[in-house]
Amino acid sequence: MTDSEQYDLQDSEFVFERFRCVVDKGQTPLRVDKYLTEHMAGTSRNRIQLAAEAGNVWANGKPVSSNYKAKPGDVLQVLLDHEPRDYTILPEDIPLDIVYEDDDLMVVNKQAGLVVHPGHGNWSGTLLNALAYYFRDNPAFDANNPDIGLVHRIDKDTSGLLLIAKTPEAKAHLANQFFLHTTERTYNALVWGTFDEDSGTITGALARDNRDRTIYRVWNTEDNPLAKEAVTHWQVLERFPYVTLVQCRLETGRTHQIRVHMRHIGHPLFADEKYGGTEILKGLPTQKYKQYIDNCFSLCPRQALHAKTLGFTHPRTGERMFFDSDWAPDFASLIEKWRAYTKNYR
């Protein structure tokens, strides 16, 4: 069975139906994200778009993208792999590393292991819970209001810079910059293998893998219309035996983009369990080397990825702002360990 044929099958994981409706006979064609926002209580267009990106919005038995035009008679569904539950974000006293803050926005340096938004398996202990606590005495900031808060996201086990909007006007302005790709974002990553070139560009549309929906893969858009084009520019920062420190500049910002693109070209991120980085992919067939790699995994037990820089235009002043962050301690220790290994390498 081909990937495209598998794609047409309804996954058995979707056992909970969050919402279902039949489009009215008199309805003119309308984007499905807008249609569902108007017909579902207690949601936002952004949440519908995120659900569609995850493959959870269906029309007539197949997943559709946000820009699918809902037509009269269409059966629309929002499907979940877990029971619907209360999404109320409660304040939790979780430390925040605040890099910058003013009346409109905040930049934080997120620690690895912190989920940014409540979701399946992580209903508490998230960055939004931390923000709810931090702004507990500020009546203008409601962590449950989708019109403020997170402007973009990074993975739970990725450390680094995140942008938070404190007003609806700021979020709309900043979100539009991300949509138009006028922000500047670079990540540092330690990846398996060495490169002949000093820089390059990876282009490949991304969507969930049908065999394992917790990960993403590069698709031919003809096989999967939900796949979104993604572009990653990479540059070598430092070379070690068997691994390389690279800088990745995002032209787009898709889920798991760097992790998937690097694996796609044969360079999975070091210690990235989901994408094969916890295997010893390069190096010596000796017990001593295996022990060294195991020690590296223990030192940084997550994908070696850090959101290093962030640039954007301030939504109120028009000033171009740029932030740089220190590596997370585990990432910094890992790089130092490889530097020490390189000095003794024969």
List the keywords:
27% strand, 10-stranded mixed sheet, 18 strands, Structural Genomics Hypothetical 15.5 Kd Protein In mrcA-pckA Intergenic Region, Chain A, 4-stranded antiparallel sheet, globular, Pseudouridine synthase, single chain
Order of helices and strands: HEEHHEEEEEEHEEHEEEEEEHHEEH
Write the CATH homologous superfamily of the largest domain: Pseudouridine synthase
The assigned structural class equals: alpha+beta
Helix proportion: 10-25%
Total number of domains: 3
Largest sheet: 10 strands, mixed
What is the straight-line distance between the termini? Answer: 48 Å
DSSP summary, beta strand count: 18
The whole-number mean of residue pLDDT values reads 90
**Highest CATH level, the class of the largest domain:** Alpha Beta
By DSSP (H or I, 4+ residues per run), the number of helices equals: 8
Shape: globular
Note poorly predicted spans: 1-12
> How much of the residues is beta strand, in percent?
25-35%
CATH fold node name of the largest domain: Pseudouridine synthase
The gyration radius over C-alpha positions equals: 21 Å
Under the CATH scheme, the architecture of the largest domain is 2-Layer Sandwich
Walk me through this protein's architecture.
With 346 residues, the chain is α+β, with helices and mostly antiparallel strands. It has three domains: 13-80, Structural Genomics Hypothetical 15.5 Kd Protein In mrcA-pckA Intergenic Region, Chain A (Roll); 98-179, 2-Layer Sandwich (Pseudouridine synthase), CATH 3.30.2350; 184-343, Pseudouridine synthase (2-Layer Sandwich). It has eight helices and 18 strands. Strands 7, 8, 9, 10, 11, 12, 15, 16, 17 and 18 form a ten-stranded mixed β-sheet that branches. β17 (305-313) and β18 (320-324) form a beta hairpin. α2 crosses α3. The protein starts with a helix and ends with a helix.
